């Protein structure tokens, strides 16, 4: 029997760096509409300086930040960086990146749910058994050997379950890392096909040498006037 028909899989909407998402001021300088899994979604482009985190992001060389909340995606990008690397933010490439991020996000969300179910299904019931054993135990009603047996068996089972769950989690994390790497490589291959491998390589080289001048945002300058 296919139990999945009784428990349909729900697609969780991606939430990504919502603090940056809600830190923006003003209107987007560009809005794109794309299709993700045959569903129309909106990408709003904002300049990095429209965020109150501009100075911290720029000084750590984070010129591009993808954010998401409630089905809308916002791309925070430095103005000069956008002008220099505009081909990397074509609609087809943005779609490829979002497809990659959503696949990884959904995979991670499913893994977290499975870990929760493992704890609820095994770890918590055994703890409950131990707790009930402790509360129901009346001192002096059993011999010492029986007492050790009553307390020992649940504890041994608990330790075994903890070891098994921990081992299973490590295996799942390795699988997750492999999935993420494989999906990323497929995404990069798709982007190379869109741009052409030679042009893509040129852009990567240009990125390595990109070293813009940092200037404080107007908001910070206003808060720190020169005396």
Descriptive report:
- α4 (91-136) packs antiparallel against α5 (144-195).
- The protein starts with 17 loop residues before the first helix and ends with a helix.
- The longest helix is centred in the last third of the chain and has 52 residues, at 144-195.
- The chain is elongated.
- Strands 1-2-4-3 form a four-stranded mixed beta sheet.
- A hairpin with a 2-residue loop joins β1 and β2.
- The chain contains seven helices and four strands, in the order αββαββααααα.
- The protein has helices at 18-21, 54-59, 79-84, 91-136, 144-195, 197-208, 218-223, and strands at 30-36, 39-47, 64-69, 72-77.
- The chain folds into two domains: 18-89, no CATH class; 99-209.
- It is an alpha+beta fold and 227 residues long.
Task: Output the strand order for the largest sheet.
Answer: 1-2-4-3
The helix fraction, in percent, is: 55-70%
| Ends distance | 77 Å
Order of helices and strands: HEEHEEHHHHH
| Residue share in β-strands | 5-15%
Number of strands: 4
What is the radius of gyration computed over CA atoms, rounded to a whole number of angstroms? 26 Å
Structural class: alpha+beta
Number of domains: 2
Mean pLDDT: 83
How would you characterize the largest beta sheet? 4 strands, mixed
Oligomer type? single chain
Shape: elongated
> Unreliable segments (pLDDT under 50, ≥5 consecutive)?
1-8, 220-227
Helix run count: 7
